[in-house]
Amino acid sequence: MNLFSLKGKFVLALDRTNWKWGKKHINILMLSCAYLGIGIPLFWMVLDRAGNSSKKDRIHLLERALERFGIEKIEALLADREFIGEPWFCFLISNKIPFIIRVKQGFMAGGICKGCHVPIKTLIKTIDYRKRKMVNYPITLWGLPLYVSIHCSKKSKEPMIVVSNLLFENPIALYRRRWEIETLFSCLKTRGFCMQDTHMTEGEKIEKLIFLLAIAFCWAYKIGSLKAKEEPIALKKHGRKTKSLFRKGLDLIRRSLFSLVRNFSQFMSVLSCFSSIQTIRSSM
């Protein structure tokens, strides 16, 4: 948090990543902070089983986060359709944790048709075809008062439907930031450290491995963003960068480590991003 100078309120994303080593399922639940297109890993746990996380698992991660920076620092908790259910929503609402969570279009909700519960997707018929969206429509789901927002994109096979416990100015746009934790998983796995190639199967060891990779990921992204200000990353014809800030930083760290003996000053330069942490600590 000090490395990225996080200020104001945080947008948190909760998600899982998993793979198999032999017959063993490696199943990781992670809570991250959305930050300029990436997810900063905050808390995680290795589940002792395959499949979805439980309410107890999610509460455990959230309580660690709340203990660290409090509810008042959370702008919104984002999660996909896996993280649903009446007990889970009750916990979030009772603890006044603002959330935007995607739900299935077939869920039965009240407040749409008088005197009965109908599928949420019924609201799609009432959406203006020019605007293609609905924002903060009041409903009841599992007897809980919520707000539903819908976006019908021409490119998507199905509409995006999210529910929230508070009125957000643009809940769909805010929910889209959930993708930033997917970027984090990609960097930890196939596009970066290839974490899934480890032969470790013990949960405690994997959690420690993620601890090291989390530091390495943040280091690479931070030094990449600093160096990109000095040497802007080239753009492709379609306007996207030839490499990400994470990849730029990771390449710099690798080169500095391989040439450590003959070019020690280069290695010291890639450590420069940690000076902000030292400054903060010395002022405490």
List keywords for this structure.
alpha+beta, 34% helix, two-stranded antiparallel sheet, 284 residues, 8-stranded mixed beta sheet, 2 domains, Transposase Inhibitor Protein From Tn5, Chain A, domain 1, disordered C terminus, single chain
Enter the CATH topology name of the largest domain: Transposase Inhibitor Protein From Tn5, Chain A, domain 1
Helix content: 25-40%
Radius of gyration over C-alpha positions, nearest whole angstrom: 21 Å
Widest sheet: strand order? 3-2-1-4-5-10-9-8
- Terminal Cα span: 15 Å
- CATH class descriptor of the largest domain: Alpha Beta
Q: What's the CATH architecture name of the largest domain?
A: Alpha-Beta Complex
Number of beta-strand segments:
10
The number of helical segments is 8
Provide the domain count.
Answer: 2
Label the overall shape.
globular
Note poorly predicted spans.
278-284
Integer average pLDDT = 90
Report the CATH superfamily of the largest domain: Transposase Inhibitor Protein From Tn5, Chain A, domain 1
Order of helix and strand elements from N to C terminus: EEEHEHEEEEEEHHHHHH
What does the main sheet amount to?
8 strands, mixed
> Structural class given helices, strands, pairing?
alpha+beta
Q: How big a fraction of the residues is strand?
A: 25-35%
